[in-house]
Each structure stands twice: as structure tokens, then as C-alpha cells.
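Working notes for the structural subgroup meeting. M.R. asked for a predicted model of this chain before we commit to crystallization trials. I am recording the input and output together here so anyone reviewing the notebook later can reproduce the run.

Input as submitted:
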Amino acid sequence: MALDIRRASLSSPDASRLITALNAELTATFPEPGATHFSLSREQVAEGDGAFLIVYAGGEAVGCGAIRRVDGTERGEIKRMFVTPACRGEGIGRAIVAALEDEARRLGFSEVVLETGTRLPAAIALYESSGYARIPLFGEYSQSPDTSLCYGKTL
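Returned structure, recorded in C-alpha cell form:
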């Protein structure tokens, strides 16, 4: 399957559709009161600080992900990773991670970190097989020890 990965605006129709689907899936997976679905702002993915990417297959938006600078450092954080259910298992998630790591290098980041949910075994397997290792919960995720896992990788 030929993939086309492009930088996009968080407010684009494709981004809105993918993020809405991601949020619905997270709400179904983590329904307990107080479960937090962490956000991403337009400023965090502005040129020079981060990027929001959409993956197209056959002209259709089938996945997304973002990288943002963490607190003005040389550390980037992967955010809002999602692949539509019909396209999972096709290597799209791996392609997004690789593209986000390329963006991180372009932005001068020396390390990439991320958070994923404890009930997302496919995401955990993707990150671990992509060279990410468990790290202590950081930042806003420290408030979610029962539902969050954090990972990091030196570039």
C-alpha cells in the first residue's frame, strides 16, 4: 500500500475526523470518571516547535500523529497517534512513528518521549518494537498512574 504522509493543520477536516475517532476510541477504552484524554494545541505543532502529520492511502486519510517540543527543550513528544481500524496491521503506525522521528531530528530534538494507555497492547507493542523503552511517568501523565505508560528513545 503506497502511503503519502503530509504535514497538516489541526483544524483541517481530515485532522478533525481522525482526532474525533481517536477520542471516541479512547473514551470507549478508558470510560472511568476522571480518565483524561490529553490534548494538543495548534501552537504546539507550529513550524519550529512541532508538526502534525496525516497519512493518506489511496487518497483517504487513514492515520495521524504529532510531535511537539517539551518545555522549550531538545526533547520531543509524540502525541495523538491514530490509525483507522480498517487499516491497522498494514504498517501505517510504524510509518507514522518513523516520520515523526524524522521531524524530531529536523527540529533538533535529541530524544523522543510519549505516553500511551495501559489498555492499548497494539500501541505498546508498536513502540517497544520501534526501540522505545519504558520511562517514569512525566508531566501531566503523572496524574494517571493506572492508565498511562510512558516511553522514551534517544535519537
